[in-house]
Amino acid sequence: MPTPARVRADACPGVFATHDAADGPLARVRLPGGAVSAAQLRALAGCAEACGDGDLHLTSRGNVQLRGVTRPGLAARLTDAGLLPSPSHERVRNVLASPLSGLAGGLADVRGLAASLDSRLCSIPELASLPGRFLFAFDDGRGDVAGEGADVCWRATGPSEGTLLLAGGDTGRRVALADAVSELIDLAREFLRVRGSAWRVAELDDPAWRGTPVPRADIPVPAGMISASAAGVVPRFGQLSAAQVRALAGFGPVLVTPWKSVVLPDAAPDVFERLGFGGEPLGTSACVGRPGCAKSRADVRADAVFRPGLRAHFSGCERRCGKPSQSHVDVVAEVGGYRVDGRWVPLEELKGRL
C-alpha cells in the first residue's frame, strides 16, 4: 500500500539548507557511491575542524554530516575540494553502489556507475527538483544496496546485464549494464512528472511503479581484511575525528558504506595497527541522542550496549533516526528506561536484558 501524501515541505538537510539540531546547524555532504579521494578526506577533516564540531559523522546512505556548523566557509571549502559540483543539485545527489564491487564478490563491476549518474544528474536542471530523500542505487548482484530502500535501483544478474528495481520490488525488466545510468535517469525524470506531492516511489499509487517484492539479503558489514589489499573499518557510532579521517587518507581513496563503515581498497595488512581503531564489526548503532538532539529522551550513546552477537539500534525517540535496514533489536528511549522490541525495560536492567 502506498503511504499517505506528504503535507509538508521536504526539509532534508544539505550544505546550504542545514538542519537546526540542538548542538547547532547540521550539514549533510553527499558522496555518490560513497567514493572519496584522499585529498577530499583531508579537506573534509579541515571542514570539520574549521566549520563544525571537529568530527565527521557517517550516515546510513553512505554520506557524511558535520554537526555544530556555526562558522562560515563550508560551501567554499567543499567546492574547492570537488565535493559540491552543483549547488542547485546538492541535496539530490543520493546514490548508493555496492562498496565491495570489483574488490571481492559480486556478479558485475559497478565501479564508476555512481560517478557517471552523478554527472548526468547534475547536468539536467529539472532533476534539481527531486525530493532530497529520492535514492538511486547500483547493486553488483550480491544484494547489499538493493536492500537499502532505493527508489530506483539497477541490480546485476550477470557481468553485463541486470534488472530494474522500484522501491525494492523487481520489475523483471532487463537492462544492460551499459544502459543502467540512462535508465535510472529516465525513471527519475518520469517520477518528477507523476509524483504530485510524493517524496518516494513507494508513495505512488500507480501499479506501474510496483515490482515483485525481493527478500532482503542480510549482508554483514564489511570489517577487517576483506581481501589481500582491501579492508573494512567500522568506527563506533559512525563517528570519526578529524585526526582519524586524516589517518584514513594515508591509505588513499576510501568508500563510505550505507552501514556507517568505511572500505579502504588499498590497505596494508597492518592497517588496524596503524589506525588504532576499527578492525572489528560492531553490532550496535545509535542515533546521536542527547545532548545533540532536542527530541531525544536520553543519552543513547552512553546507554548503548555492546556484546558479541548483539545487533541493536538505540533510538532517542520514535523517529529512530539512522536505524539499519538489517534485522536488529529495536531499543527506543522512554523516561526512566527503554522499550526493547516493544517491551518496557528499566534503565538499570537494560544490560541484563540484551
> Would you list the SSEs in sequence order as H and E?
EEEHEEHEHEEEEHEEEEHEEHEHEEEEH
Query: How many beta-strand segments?
Result: 21
Query: What is the count of helical runs?
Result: 8
Largest sheet: 6 strands, mixed
Mean pLDDT: 94
Oligomer: single chain
Give the overall shape, derived from the CA principal axes. globular
Low-confidence parts: none
Provide a short characterization of the protein structure:
The chain is of the alpha+beta class. Helix content is 19%, strand content 23%. The longest helix is centred in the middle third of the chain and has 15 residues.
Describe this protein's structure:
There is one protein chain. The chain has about 350 residues and is an alpha+beta fold. The protein contains eight helices and 21 strands. The protein has helices at about 40-50, 75-80, 115-120, 180-195, 240-250, 270-275, 300-305, 350-354, and strands at about 20, 25-30, 35, 55-60, 65, 95, 135-140, 150-155, 160-165, 170-175, 210-215, 225, 230-235, 240, 255, 260-265, 285, 310-315, 330-335, 335-340, 345. The strands form four sheets. It has a six-stranded mixed beta sheet, covered by helices on one side. Strands 1-2-5-4-14 form a five-stranded antiparallel beta sheet. The protein has a five-stranded antiparallel beta sheet with strand order 3-15-16-13-12. Helix 7 links the parallel strand 17 (about 285) and strand 18 (about 310-315). Helix 3 crosses helix 4. The two termini are about 35 Å apart.
List keywords for this structure.
354 residues; alpha+beta; six-stranded mixed β-sheet; five-stranded antiparallel β-sheet; 8 helices; 21 strands; 23% strand; globular
